[in-house]
From TrEMBL:
One of its GO terms (molecular function) is LPPG:FO 2-phospho-L-lactate transferase activity. This is Putative gluconeogenesis factor. Required for morphogenesis under gluconeogenic growth conditions. It comes from the Bacteria. It is found in: Cytoplasm. Gene3D superfamilies: CofD-like domains. One of its GO terms (biological process) is regulation of cell shape. It holds the Pfam family CofD.
Length: 321
């Protein structure tokens, strides 16, 4: 029987794991945040009133078994001096166009999935654009993912509202069904407060995560994120996740134990100063989870990333247990 794996997140972290995972005999689903308001995605959500397409585009490409030339075109981003089209990715424009043509983001994604020959399912966590809000440790309220990231303040919790400010939001039924029927739920890797948690706080998603019989795994980030998780241990990431889940639902935490060379990461290129996430296995156990420590490190592009194949091997072993 084919294992059903559901990945929850957004940003650039999920595709790293998805690419090797789709090569396995699994039924893979990605549930993606719709609260991105920066760059091309932010512009399209404001002018066309659709959910931000960037994260969906990247995951579609990661799941695709299509022609590489088509994928390169789908990912092509217009140059900054192209004025009207500046910074827009072709795939974002196609998602916007198909959403307008079909009147439904799910139908738009389904069409693109056929065109790109994807192996898996991609569901937005909700079918309407959402606005992320955060409260800092000092009680200040921040609005919008881009503003939250730029503020560089310690965060306490997040929530989402629709464009009218309402918190009564409907999660995508497909996303809820995928969670309830899953064998394994995987959180991340990705920005904790702006990629993972914006999915969990959508009404209906948390309840499904509390109800599912699936094992649940958190892939801890290799590096901290400025303004979001400064000096966080792997256990502190988990504590925040469990706080938003309103229960100790996570069964396993995957943490990299290989040292990132001090002079390897180009902090100027990646736009932030970060430090390697410290392991705290005892605190992980206190949060009701089992720590899985290993060499999950891939050094490339002057940055520290997860080795997708090594993480995939562990995820498959957990499914088989």
């Amino acid at each position: 029987m084919t294992a059903k794996i559901v990945m929850i997140g957004g940003g650039s972290g999920l595709p790293v794991i998805i690419k090797p995972l789709v090569q396995q005999n699994v039924d893979l689903t990605a549930i993606v945040t719709v609260a991105d308001d920066g760059g091309s995605s932010g512009l399209l959500r404001d002018y066309v009133n659709i959910i931000p397409p960037g994260d969906i585009r990247n995951i579609l490409v990661a799941m695709s078994e299509g022609d590489q030339d088509i994928l390169d075109l789908f990912q092509y981003r217009f140059k900054t001096d192209d004025d009207f089209l500046a910074k827009h990715a072709v795939g974002n424009l196609l998602i916007a166009a198909l959403t307008e043509m079909t009147g439904d983001i799910s139908q738009a994604i389904a069409k693109l999935a056929r065109y790109l020959k994807i192996k898996g399912h991609v569901y937005p966590v909700a079918k309407q654009p959402l606005i992320l809000h955060a409260e800092t440790k000092h009680g200040e309220e921040l609005k919008g993912e881009a503003s939250i990231t730029a503020a560089h303040q310690a965060l306490d919790h997040v929530w989402v509202v629709d464009n009218e400010g309402n918190q009564d939001i409907q999660a995508s039924p497909e996303a809820i069904e995928a969670i309830l029927s899953a064998d394994l739920i995987v959180y991340g890797p990705g920005s904790l407060f702006t990629s993972i948690l914006p999915n969990i706080v959508v009404p209906g998603i948390r309840e499904a995560l509390q109800k599912t019989k699936a094992k649940q795994v958190y892939i801890a980030n290799i590096m901290t994120q400025k303004g979001e998780t400064d000096a966080y241990t792997d256990a502190q990431h988990l504590q925040v996740l469990n706080k938003h889940l309103q229960a100790q639902l996570v069964d396993y935490v995957l943490t990299n134990d290989q040292e990132v060379p001090a002079d390897f990461v180009d902090y100027q290129k990646w736009g932030e100063i970060s430090k390697q996430v410290i392991q705290d296995p005892e605190a992980i156990e206190q949060e009701g989870a089992k720590g899985i420590s290993g060499d999950f490190l891939a050094l490339r592009d002057a940055g520290a990333f997860h080795d997708g194949q090594k993480v995939t091997d562990v995820l498959l072993s957990l499914v088989e247990e």
